[in-house]
């Protein structure tokens, strides 16, 4: 079957094997469609996989993304289309190439993904998360920072740190998310604490006790959960430097840490800044380049900040002075709109999965219309295709 | 084509600035259209236009005045006239964007529900039976909801009788859409309009559900009032 794009490039779409059932996502069988790839391990994704979809199994999806990481609409769509498939795109390929060639004896490199809202930053981060999981790195993943800043479920003033605020519920959730993502790996690594943590007169975690004990304490005692998170991040940093493990830090919406306001108010109704959260302090300490044997991948998005600060998607504007000075020097990686190849690949995927139903829309004229009206913008395309 | 030649010249006042005194008179005496009777509807479907050009019809229509296209008449591959009409009926207070969003969300939900069935089906035969295109489902659902007769009140000897009379195509389509929208606007509102509309459309597609029942009740009433059918002619 030969199909032409509006510019005249020829795509050849092969017939699928008749044994392929529409029920199961093709994982083991050979796929010869131009919009898919057989390569299911992100560690091997290279330039020639650009614009192709690779499928992620249910078990990996459950392990990595139960606590968040995939945007809500994308996740729902993947459930409707009977399986999670991520498009391999240039930003992720670039990051994977860098991560494969990193000298882990040097101080950690910070990578900042930037781009318009809805251009695919969160999905690229999800791809990198899968890479880190396959590469045996300990994943420190914050799915969406604005959830802590804009919709906190009950901040309490911190006991240990004066004038700072705890997130008891969010910290428990995060520790649960961490243990789901890194459960098996942590069992294998058997990391131990390097110092004693005193929680109260009777409760303490001695030096040399396993890290899993620290995590369990945090999950069971919401009062100390935030400080457990801070302690855990400190321990992971030390463990990375002493080469007991390799750490990959992935944070989505990092610029929310430097937002000019949050939803938390003191008794006198004055607004608490995100920099006054204990969690912020912990993650900012982790994203400093004063440790080795790790990598930090962060995204900045306009939708992470209030409405009046969404003029530009660029990192310097989104991070603000404080954020920029914290992250500088970093490697900025742009996540652009779809290229022509990626666009056609996305439409092919929607057609194959029976999502784009309108017969006229599947023609070249339909593709040209969708490309024009969406501007090749991933989120706009998803919204345009959704009803039809 | 000059606008003044195309627009209807209504007597003794400017069409745009009309006195309230004259409105009632206009409503009773003249139709609303601001166009003169010979002005044609626009053809905005690209395939139809190409056909007209090929067959030579286009040449004949070169100097015929044509009405301005409405803002929802477009050449998009997603354009569907019936859906446009339906969106107009869903719309309240001129909020077209909200109405479009509601109907489009309903279409998306229809797709989601049908795809769930599709991916659960095990045989090719089962999959072939499941209709996935929401526009096709919408058209079939409306067809299933259209009544073939309607009742009209006719007064005879002091009593008012509900008399069954034939129904025009436009009226039938209107009633089907109206009932569909009314059934989707539940009193309790826990399940929102798009989701309810999706369920109603799917039911009507399968010839079940509240709207089809309403049509069938109307038909039954017409059947029971068959005796009065001659009242139509006095």
UniProtKB/TrEMBL annotation, chain A:
InterPro entries recorded for this chain? Ribosomal_mS29, Ribosomal_mS29_met
Q: Which GO terms describe its cellular component?
A: mitochondrial small ribosomal subunit
Q: Which UniProt keywords apply?
A: Mitochondrion, Ribonucleoprotein, Ribosomal protein, Transit peptide
Localization per record: Mitochondrion
GO MF annotations, alphabetized = structural constituent of ribosome
A biological process term (GO) from this entry: apoptotic process
Q: What is its main location?
A: mitochondrion
Sequence similarity: Belongs to the mitochondrion-specific ribosomal protein mS29 family.
Query: What is the name of the protein in this document?
Result: Small ribosomal subunit protein mS29
Name of the gene encoding the protein in the UniProt record: EOG090X05V1
UniProtKB/TrEMBL annotation, chain B:
One Pfam family, short name: Ribosomal_S7
Query: Would the keyword Ribonucleoprotein be found if you checked this record's keyword annotation?
Result: yes
Q: Which GO terms describe its cellular component?
A: mitochondrial inner membrane; mitochondrial matrix; ribosomal subunit
Chief location category: mitochondrion
Q: Which InterPro entries match?
A: Ribosomal_uS7, Ribosomal_uS7_dom, Ribosomal_uS7_dom_sf
Stored CDD domains: uS7_Mitochondria_Mammalian
Q: Which UniProt keywords apply?
A: Mitochondrion, Ribonucleoprotein, Ribosomal protein, Transit peptide
> Where in the numbering of this chain does the Small ribosomal subunit protein uS7 domain appear?
57-226
Output the GO biological process annotations, alphabetical, semicolon-separated.
translation
Protein's name in the database:
Small ribosomal subunit protein uS7m
Organism of this sequence: Daphnia sinensis
